[in-house]
Design goal:
Layout lengths: L1 H18 L20 E9 L2 H5 L5 H7 L2 H23 L7 H13 L2 E8 L8 E7 L2 H19 L4 E3 L6 E8 L6 E7 L2 E7 L4 H13 L12 E6 H7 L12 E9 L2 E9 L22 E8 L2 H5 L2 H6 L7 E7 L6 E6 L3 H22 L4 E4 L5 E5 L7 E7 L2 E7 L12 H8 L4 E8 H19 L9 H10 L4 E10 L2 E8 L5 H11 L9 H4 L6
Antiparallel strand pairs: 1-2, 1-8, 2-3, 3-7, 4-5, 5-6, 6-7, 8-9, 9-10, 10-20, 11-12, 11-18, 12-13, 13-17, 14-15, 15-16, 16-17, 18-19, 19-20
Helix pairs in contact: 1-4, 4-5, 4-14, 5-6, 13-14, 13-15, 14-15
C-alpha cells in the first residue's frame, strides 16, 4: 500500500537520526556545555493521520477495503517485523535480539495513530540531523508502553542508561533522557496532553521545546496550517538524504517536494509541488507524439518532455557515448499480451544512436549471450537495431524508424504489428491542449500491475538478477490488489521556471510500476535498504 511506504519512512527517519553513531560504552559521557547553535532550517515534515482515523473517513471505503485484504494484512505484518529488527541488524549485526519484541508494538502505533515528524538541520551541516522530533497521539496505556519499551530499546542499542527527567513547562509529564557519545548525543521522551514526543538533538533540542509549546497553546504539535489530509509531507530531498546518510549534501541534486494525500469517493487524490534544484529547468518544445506507432487499444500511455538538459548532464547518459539525448519520451501498453509494452523517443540522429547502442549491448552482453544460447539479442537482419532470438514468450527489439514527426528510437517487448485503431482522440487532446504540460500518465492500474509483474521478471532474467519469489508475501499482495485497482491519471505542469505542480487521481496513490518497485523494496533481504532484485542472490531465480 502507498501509505505503508510512508510509515516505513517515518520509522526509518526516526531511528536513523536517533542512533547515528551509536556504540557500546561502559560509562555515560559528561554533559557538554551548550554552545551557540548554528541557524537551523526545517528540512522535512511528515503529518500522518493514522489508519484508525482514515478508516472513519467515508471517502476511504475503497482504500480501506484494499488495506484490509488478507494479503495486505500479511504484508504489513512482514514489513513491520522487518523494521523491528533493523536497528540491531544495522548497528550491531544482530538478527535475533530479544528487545525487538519491545519495538514491534510501537511500530503498530506508527501505522495506526496520528503522528508528526519534523527534522531541522544547520545550514551546510555535514553531521547527522541536528534536531528531530516525533510526536504521536496515544492514549495513556499506549503512552506508558512507549515510555518503558522505547527506553529499553535505546538502552539496548547504545549501552547507556536512560534517566528519568521532567522537561520544562507545566504541560509536560515525566519522561526520560539519555546522553551518548556521538551525534545526536541527546535522546529524550516526554508527554504533553494526548501526545508522546521523542526527540534527538546535539546537546539541546530547541525543536522539542517549540513543539511542546505549540501543544500547550494549540493542542497539536504541528503548525496550524497543516490540514487533515491523510498524509501531508514536504522537505528538501538533498538535505534529507544527507542527514540520513544516503547521499553527500554537496553532490546530491534532488528537488524540494511538498505533497498532500486525501480521499474523495472512489479515488485517492494526490497534489504537490516540486522545486527543482539550483538552476535546473525544463524547456518545453512542442509535443511530437508518434501516433502512427501507437495502437489505440491501450492499457497505459505516458508522455514526458523537457528533460534533455538534465539528461545531457547525467554521467549515466554521457558514459553511453551514443550522442545527444532525446527531449521527449513516450511509453504505451496494449491489452493483447501481458508484456506488450512499447516506447519511442523522437531523435534526429536516431539511426546512429541506435547503431552505437546496439554495439554497446552486444559488447557488454556477450559473456551472458555466450552462456545462454537459448535466448539473447542479435543485430537484426531486417532493420537497424537489435532483435531477440530464443524464448518464445517475449520478442524485445530496438530500432530506428521514420514516423510522421521524423526519426524515432522505437522499441518494445514484442515485434509490432499494424495498429488496429488509432490512439483515442480524447487522450491526444488532453496532452496537446496543455501548453505547460511536462508529464502525462494514464493507465488501467489493475491490468498494468499484472503486466509489470511479467515485465519485471523478464528484465531480471535478462540482466541475471534475482526474481521476485512467486510464493512471497509481496507477490501474493500484488496479485490480490490488481483486481481492486481502477484508473490512474497523473499530470505534472510547469507553473513557473524551476517550479512544477503535480496532481494524481488513483485507487491507492501509486501507479503500477510504483507498486511493483514498492513490492521489490519491501521484499529486500536488507530492508529497509535496497531492492530484492539488486541484493538477493541470483540463485533464487
Amino acid at each position: 500500500m502507498f501509505l505503508r511506504q510512508i510509515r516505513c519512512v517515518i520509522a526509518l527517519a526516526l531511528f536513523a537520526a536517533l542512533f547515528a553513531g551509536c556504540g557500546k560504552s561502559a560509562t555515560a559521557p559528561p554533559k557538554p556545555a551548550v554552545s551557540s547553535p548554528a541557524p537551523l532550517e526545517t528540512i522535512a515534515r511528515i503529518h500522518w493521520l493514522g489508519k484508525n482515523r482514515i478508516s472513519a473517513d467515508t471517502n476511504a471505503a475503497t482504500f480501506m477495503k484494499i488495506w484490509d485484504l488478507p494479503e495486505s494484512v500479511k504484508l504489513e505484518a512482514q514489513t513491520l517485523d522487518k523494521l523491528s529488527v533493523a536497528p540491531w541488524r544495522f548497528l550491531h549485526g544482530e538478527t535475533n535480539h530479544s528487545t525487538t519484541n519491545l519495538l514491534r508494538p510501537l511500530l503498530d502505533d506508527l501505522a495506526n495513530e496520528e503522528s508528526y515528524v519534523e527534522i531541522r538541520r544547520a545550514t551546510n551541516s555535514t553531521n547527522a540531523a541536528d534536531e528531530i522530533v516525533l510526536a504521536i497521539r496515544l492514549n495513556n496505556q499506549r503512552a506508558a508502553l512507549w515510555q518503558t519499551n522505547l527506553a529499553a530499546v535505546v538502552e539496548s542499542l547504545t549501552g547507556m542508561t536512560a534517566a528519568n527527567s521532567q522537561p520544562s513547562g507545566t504541560n509536560t509529564a515525566p519522561g526520560w533522557s539519555l546522553r551518548k557519545h556521538h551525534a545526536p548525543n541527546l535522546i529524550e521522551l516526554t508527554r504533553a496532553g494526548d501526545w508522546t514526543l521523542v526527540g534527538a538533538a546535539q546537546d539541546h533540542n530547541a525543536l522539542l521545546d517549540e513543539t511542546l509549546a505549540r501543544i500547550g497553546h494549540e493542542g497539536v504539535p504541528f503548525p496550524i496550517e497543516v490540514t487533515n489530509s491523510w498524509l501531508e509531507a514536504g522537505g528538501d530531498l538533498s538535505r534529507l538524504a544527507s542527514a540520513m546518510g544516503f547521499a553527500d549534501n554537496k553532490s546530491s541534486n534532488f528537488p524540494q517536494v511538498y505533497f498532500t494525500v486525501l480521499g474523495s469517493a472512489q479515488y485517492v487524490l494526490t497534489h504537490g509541488e516540486i522545486t527543482l534544484p539550483g538552476k535546473a529547468y525544463v524547456k518545453l518544445d512542442p509535443w511530437n507524439i508518434p501516433t502512427n506507432l501507437i495502437d489505440g487499444d491501450l492499457t497505459s500511455f505516458t508522455a514526458i518532455r523537457g528533460f534533455k538538459p538534465w539528461l545531457s548532464s547525467s554521467k549515466t547518459w554521457t558514459n553511453l557515448q551514443i550522442g545527444p539525448p532525446p527531449d521527449q519520451f513516450y511509453i504505451w501498453a496494449v491489452r493483447a499480451f501481458p508484456m506488450e509494452t512499447y516506447f519511442a523517443a523522437p531523435l534526429s540522429d536516431a539511426s546512429n544512436a541506435v547503431s552505437r547502442f546496439s554495439d554497446l549491448v552486444l559488447k557488454k552482453g556477450s559473456p551472458w549471450f555466450a552462456t545462454n544460447s537459448l535466448a539473447g539479442f542479435r543485430r537484426s537482419a531486417t532493420f537497424n537495431g537489435l532483435s531477440w532470438h530464443g524464448l518464445p514468450y517475449a520478442a524485445p527489439f530496438l530500432q530506428s524508424i521514420d514516423g510522421k514527426g521524423g526519426a524515432f528510437v522505437f522499441g518494445g517487448y514484442f515485434q509490432p504489428t499494424a495498429s488496429s485503431q488509432p490512439p483515442p482522440p480524447a487522450l491526444l487532446k488532453e496532452i496537446l491542449n496543455h501548453t505547460n504540460l511536462v508529464y502525462y500518465d494514464w493507465e488501467l492500474t489493475g491490468l498494468r500491475v499484472d503486466q509489470w509483474l511479467h515485465l519485471g521478471q523478464f528484465i531480471r532474467f535478462v540482466s541475471g538478477k534475482a526474481q521476485l519469489p512467486f510464493d512471497s508475501a509481496t507477490t501474493a499482495w500484488i496479485r490480490a490488489v490488481s483486481s481492486q485497482l481502477g484508473n490512474c491519471g497523473t499530470e505534472i505542469t510547469e507553473t513557473e521556471p524551476g517550479q512544477l505542480s503535480f496532481t494524481r487521481n488513483s485507487t491507492v496513490g501509486l501507479t503500477a510500476i510504483e507498486l511493483h518497485l514498492l513490492a521489490d523494496w519491501l521484499e529486500s533481504p536488507n530492508f529497509p535498504y535496497g531492492l530484492h532484485t539488486l541484493l538477493a542472490p541470483p540463485s533464487e531465480q
